[in-house]
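ugh ok so i messed up the first submission bc i forgot one of the chains. this is the corrected input, ALL of the components this time, i swear. 684 residues overall. if the numbers dont match what u have on ur side tell me asap before i send this to the collaborators (the ones from the other lab, u know who)
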Amino acid sequence: MSASPTSDETTAVAENGEVLVSVRNLKKHFPIMKGVFKRQVGAVRAVDGVSFDIYRGETLGLVGESGSGKSTAGRVILQLDPVTEGHVTFRDVDLTETKGEKLRALRPQMQMIFQDPHASLNPRMTVGSIIGEPLQEHNQAKGKERKQRIEELLSLVGLEPKHANRYPHEFSGGQRQRIGIARALALNPDFIVCDEPIAALDVSIQAQVVNLMENLQDVLGLTYLFISHDLSMVRHIADRVAVMYLGKIMELAEVEALYNRPSHPYTQALLSAVPVPDPEVEATRTRVILEGDIPSPANPPPGCPFNTRCPMAQERCVAEVPAFRELDSGHWVACHFAEEAREKVKGIV
Amino acid sequence: MNVTQREPVLEVKELRTQFDTQDGIVHAVNGVSFTLNKGEFLGVVGESGSGKSVTMMSLLRLIPMPPGEIVSGTAMFNGEDLLTLGEDALRKVRGAKIGFIFQDPMTSLNPVLTVGFQIQESLKIHQNMDDKQSRARAQELLEMVGIPAAADRLDNFPFELSGGMRQRAMIAVALACNPEILIADEPTTALDVTIQAQIIEIITDLRDQLDSAVIWITHDLGVVAGLADRVLVMYGGQIVEEAIVNDLYADPQHPYTKGLLGSIPRLDQKGAELTNIKGQPPNLYSFPESCSFAPRCPYAYERCWNENPPLLNVGESHFASCWWDIENNRPRYVS
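and heres the new structure output, hopefully the right one now
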């Protein structure tokens, strides 16, 4: 697994730990159709060749701005959308080759927590039936046993058994997110994709939900893929972090290495743009202000996808796609000039 | 000169706004008083439902009335009370002397009018410019907010611009008449962080150039830390703490502020566990007769349940509405 990476097949593997999910050269292109005959005239390259491993029991943070493809990556990994190319291996089973009943039988082990707790809960179902639905679907726990399991799940996420008979609208945003978490936990999964689970919540409620997720991870030994645009929260919760831009991973490292020694110009700009809630620290920071906006994934620039906004971009960056290479152990960067970029890192965080 | 010692440009006293809804009266703003000084950057921090936006919109009577109603209060601006000013006089203030930037530029810019038209509109109305003059000025404004190829962009419709560009155009509209006060209501919340950094840079540059006072409404304690001179923290339709920016972050005196600062992770530190503020924000269906934070407060005692604390002076230019002295672990006695 520690084969030397090429631009085509990149790998990022740490020395220790059991790999639970392995993603290789994953691509998801959405076709753009035009004309009477709906001919395909192009494709939105939402995810364009990403590779990484997720270790058992860890939290891998997947960060990026809107349009970077991070949510699509999460959905494709769980096979909620079919892949265009590449492989996702879960416990030695290649999910991209698995279909129908076989895939369905694996689904209990991998679940998802969604961003918007208002849109992801059926308003006409009681909380009990929302949490019980996965049990019903997979023929687990019937009758009294199911009722008991629902109550158990409710108390696990900090709600009360009596809440089972109520409807989602009777709950606040934070409580609804707890219901979404309880539903994800119903089938005792190993792996949970959390797609911006706190983005829709108030600041004082975010900490409640994050603390709950951390406790559950400790108690149940869960593995998280934590998709977020909140770099401060990712530093708090993640063990390793992958930074996405235009469908590609720009940098991947252990959390402290990434925040202390960001080595991709994009990671540096991203980190420097996040305000710190401390006026004295803010007064000493340098900001890297990027020009312009993220380009359209339907028409990405040639070479390095970041070259249109990069303060260090040179001719080579337009001509040649940078390899995703291991700068030091476990610290992967897709930049021709990562060594120089790293030198300029002072004062960013 | 310390901004808190400058002369005030806006003085709000005892503002109360409520909404008459199907489910009962929502007490959105409950006795808010504050002063904005000339050239000052005032941060207003609060969660959704804290009343931060309704307070500022009430000042320009931008809330729909009915169901909204400004029950009481005064807002003195240049010797006039904005809350009792006639419609015509108020229109001369809106967009001219006080500019407003809204959170979502897609819903606050008119989709069927060009960007240029919308900037020129206020120049024509408030500054009697003709078409040619106003167009030149509009182009200048777009250049000032960092929009490339400004002359061409004047003829674009809002949908032709990206989110960051639209927010810049919105800023240009708000700044068109060199307002004395610029009110920005979560201007960067809908934007990505790298775009947020661009917008913040523009606003700080402009503030130095124009010497306008700025009120920046946000839920993000991080954004105002590097920007504001002074910060108001709102909760349940009231100001619960007011302080110079450094004092607020270094020495928060209200349990809510303290809890909020403890509950947000920091980019520059791998912190310990985040502290919870237990419970939910208050519903606003009853007028607060007691401290509205008491149900969530770890320090609440008898007095908090019986008497709503006013803003008490707890240090130099530092006020907090709390009956408990956290530092000395005893009730706060008011002389």
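quick check: The radius of gyration of chain B is 21 Å. that seems consistent at least. The interface with chain A takes residues 47-48, 162-165, 192-198, 201, 219-223, 225-226, 245-246, 249-250, 259-261, 263-268, 270-271, 273-278, 280-281 of chain B (CB under 8 Å).
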